[in-house]
Design a protein that fits this description.
Length: about 675
């Protein structure tokens, strides 16, 4: 009998263990795959069981279990200093709160598994998106990485379908961006065209609610603009960016939007007598009239102040200088950033030689320290530099409107008499050329750090070209204008030569070519014609310099007639790519190095039509699933080009006939190769 009991207990324990094992296995199988995900290496990696990983686990656990949020948008951070983690979770606007939390829970389990040590990653399910980073994400429009999915079926009446689709997307974009509820930027709708035999097109658009009206509109416009590239004449398609997404189909694919709890705003029911009702009405009238009067008085006071300031501006020396900066908005921005000359003089110890950081073509840069303790860098333009005065105003106007972690931040400026001062955040590790071309200091930049710098420059340029509210061409991108912060993050600097493109512009002509030879695209150096592809060329030169540790002009010393581009191309063709790589790079992923050389050669192709955009380059850097074309022979900075000048002129003139924004044309929906 005792033996039988023991046997029963053993049998029960075994079956209980087997049941648990079946449940675990079934749950593991039930873990769905992402539609797509990206593991970004630009912000560095964390180690197992580190403080950063612990903070990430705590943050993601709290995000997916939060039951107080019912509108599908989660924005949290956890930790301190360099171990601080930021995360954003966004559910589709028609997803119920419990399904939303379940989707985010799947995401927070799967994404760290797929990206086991990257500090920044993003993944998309059908119902939700999860994104985390060691950099702040809130309120920042991000256009990359991105991907698309297209319906396999084609439409029968393409022109009518595309017209109806365009009308639908325009309406939904405006509806989502101008949502009355700041917690939701989501819109769905449909469009029926009688010429399509009353066929209905259904659409959905959504932004992360932290975006402003302008940023949401811009993000959706960029996504809609990609439809001809990703889903041309298809019956359905989706395009995903970190900050927004769009989808359209010929069949209904969404539910009514989730009802979001609102704060009770209606007055309580009145059950008292008429005198009490009258008294309540009087109180209501007072509650309406008094704030209205206050608002009117504030507005009148504001108008008077603006008029007085404008009158003062016309009678002051500083004001007259500022009026030369393009418009009233620029002036208002500039005035808010203005420093007193005496403040800067004290901060730099009267511009002492000991505080001198370096000098360029237009002036000297000094280190300084404000009374608040903040360390600054001050660029003091030469008094006799007329050209520098133009660059000064241009830099104030542009940088005051640009904010990105891979751009140097303008803190302010000073205009006093003939003094022209620009005040920047202090970037302690000097510029890229200080390290990369020094035979001893270059050893401090291992491959992981160089790859991070390449990615940072790419993100900064992508912001300038596509993701900022302006469209900027830098025109003087070079190693000396890439600054490195305390964590060796790249920051693009020196916007004195930058130019802003109008909304419908793709190219600009100039009679005065400025910049640095070697980094200049051939169509700019020879014809004064520049576009975003000019910056792409300069980026390609930078990439090859970073990988090789050699200057673009390294062979122009009378001993050889081969520059860095020709050297890289020759070794690429001969299969001796290892000769391009800096010998000090003993460790690191050779696959990444080879891929970056490939990207660099694509960027420096002679034909600007063949060069990729920065959006495409960002995808090339972040995903091995992107199939890259083979590069053509690059332009040479010492002559010997393979095409005649008239041919180059014709290529540039025809650039409008070729769509330059191929940011997702060639992406395949497959898992990235392991890195």
């Amino acid at each position: 009998m005792a033996i039988l009991i023991v046997s029963c207990k053993f049998s029960f324990s075994f079956y209980y263990f087997l049941l648990l094992l079946i449940i675990i296995v079934s749950q593991a199988k039930a873990q769905p795959n992402f539609l797509y995900h990206f593991c970004m290496n630009d912000n560095g990696n964390y180690t197992a069981n580190s403080t950063y990983q612990n903070n990430l686990n705590i943050l993601l656990s709290n995000l997916s279990t939060n039951t107080q949020i019912n509108y599908g948008f989660y924005n949290f951070s956890y930790g301190q200093n360099t171990n601080k983690v930021y995360a954003i979770g966004l559910c589709r606007g028609d997803v119920k709160p419990d399904i939303c939390r379940s989707c985010l829970n799947d995401s927070r389990v799967l994404l760290p598994q797929l990206c086991p040590n990257q500090k920044e990653a993003i993944g998309w399910y059908e119902n939700c998106m999860l994104r985390y980073s060691n950099q702040s994400l809130f309120g920042i429009k991000e256009g990359s990485p991105s991907f698309y999915m297209a319906n396999v079926n084609n439409v029968t009446h393409a022109d009518q379908f595309n017209r109806a689709l365009g009308n639908l997307m325009k309406k939904l974009k405006e509806k989502a961006a101008s949502s009355n509820d700041s917690r939701v930027k989501y819109a769905t709708g449909n469009e029926t065209d009688t010429s399509l035999n009353f066929q209905t097109i259904y659409g959905l658009v959504q932004c992360t609610p932290d975006l402003s009206f302008q940023d949401c509109t811009s993000c959706l416009e960029d996504a809609i603009y990609e439809i001809p590239s990703c889903c041309n004449n298809k019956m359905g398609g989706r395009f995903f960016k970190p900050s927004c997404k769009i989808r359209f189909e010929s069949g209904l694919f969404y539910d009514p939007p989730t009802v979001v709890d609102t704060v009770e705003t209606s007055p309580p029911q009145v059950t008292s007598n008429s005198s009490e009702t009258s008294n309540s009405s009087s109180h209501t009238t007072i509650a309406i009239v008094v704030p209205t009067v206050v608002v009117v008085l504030v507005l009148l006071n504001l108008i008077i102040c603006i008029c007085l300031r404008r009158n003062h501006r016309h009678h002051s020396t500083v004001g007259s200088n500022l009026e030369e900066i393009e418009d009233d908005d620029d002036i208002e921005i500039a005035e808010s950033l203005q420093f007193n000359f005496g403040t800067i003089e004290v901060a730099t110890n009267n511009f002492s030689e000991a505080n001198k950081l370096g000098h360029g073509g237009f002036g000297v840069v000094y280190q300084g320290k404000l009374s608040s303790g903040q360390v600054i860098a001050v660029k003091r333009l030469s008094i006799d530099s007329g050209q520098g005065d133009i660059e000064f105003k241009n830099e104030v106007r542009l940088l005051a409107k640009l904010q990105h972690r891979n751009l140097v931040k303008l803190l302010g400026f000073c205009l006093e008499g003939k003094e022209r001062l620009l005040v920047y955040e202090f970037v302690p590790n000097k510029s890229l050329d200080y390290f990369i071309f020094d035979p001893i200091k270059k050893a401090q930049l291992d491959w992981a750090m160089r790859y991070k710098i390449i990615g940072g420059i790419a993100r900064g340029l992508l912001y300038l070209h596509e993701d900022s509210r302006l469209r900027i061409i830098h025109r003087d991108l070079k190693s000396g204008n890439i600054l490195l912060d305390e964590d060796m993050n790249a920051k693009i600097s020196d916007f004195g030569m930058a130019r802003q493109l109008l909304v419908d512009q793709t190219q600009v002509n100039t009679n005065k070519v400025v910049g640095t030879y070697g980094y200049m695209a051939p169509e700019y150096a020879m014809f004064g014609q520049f576009s975003v592809k000019s910056d792409v060329f300069s980026f390609g030169v930078l990439v090859l310099e970073i990988i090789s540790g050699q200057k673009i002009s390294r062979f122009l010393d009378g001993q050889s007639q081969e520059d860095l581009l020709s050297f890289a191309w020759r070794n690429w063709r001969e299969g001796t790519i290892i000769d391009i790589i800096d010998p000090s790079l003993n460790n690191g992923s050779q696959n990444e190095m080879m891929r970056c050389i490939h990207i660099g050669l694509l960027c420096v192709q002679e034909s600007l039509v063949e060069r990729p955009t920065m959006a495409t380059i960002a995808l090339m850097l972040s995903s091995y699933s992107f199939t890259m074309p083979l590069p053509l022979e690059p332009a040479s900075s010492i002559g010997g080009r393979t095409r005649s000048l008239p041919d180059m002129q014709q290529q540039f003139d025809n650039v409008n006939a070729t769509r330059s924004d191929e940011s997702v044309n060639q992406i395949s929906i497959t898992d990235p190769y392991p890195r």
